[in-house]
Amino acid sequence: KQEVTQIPAALSVPEGENLVLNCSFTDSAIYNLQWFRQDPGKGLTSLLLIQSSQREQTSGRLNASLDKSSGRSTLYIAASQPGDSATYLCAPTGGSYIPTFGRGTSLIVHP
Amino acid sequence: DAGVTQSPTHLIKTRGQQVTLRCSPKSGHDTVSWYQQALGQGPQFIFQYYEEEERQRGNFPDRFSGHQFPNYSSELNVNALLLGDSALYLCASSPEGVGSYYGYTFGSGTRLTVV
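Output (structure tokens, whole complex):
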């Protein structure tokens, strides 16, 4: 059974900092890994999707890397802004084709 | 292009009652999955529907059941509601066969409160 751990669980930083959010998973036999953003009480918004054959994906100030063999993914957020405040969830998809979620990293960026 | 649509947005039910939640998948998607997200937790997989049949199921009791219609929309039914069923229920859609390549698209969720 896939287990997903996200570190840190919570993060509070001043605006402008470059951030690193970590995701580890126990079963490296995955097809892809998605990073999502969730605002309080809302649904999930897909940020980045990395295929198992890829090492990284970039979208604007976001960059996600994937090291499948070691079961790790990292989300980098450059020049953080208050609008980035949300919970960030990673979800690897394995042989069942069902994404498995961690508990997320709760991010607060204060002005 | 509409994304995944869920209704209702919020719902309050009494313990022991039954509830039905609805989901319309993103255009071009024919596979629908349901997740339960308790406060402070990550989403937990309930089940997935494809071709009007339940294809996979997570670790949820039989009180949780579903249905998929020919137009690919789906319903989640929960019988004999418990206080612990209070959660955000998320629907996700994906294109069959290539869902693992294109990833999943989620709706905004239905907040269910059981009192």
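Chain A has a mean pLDDT of 95.
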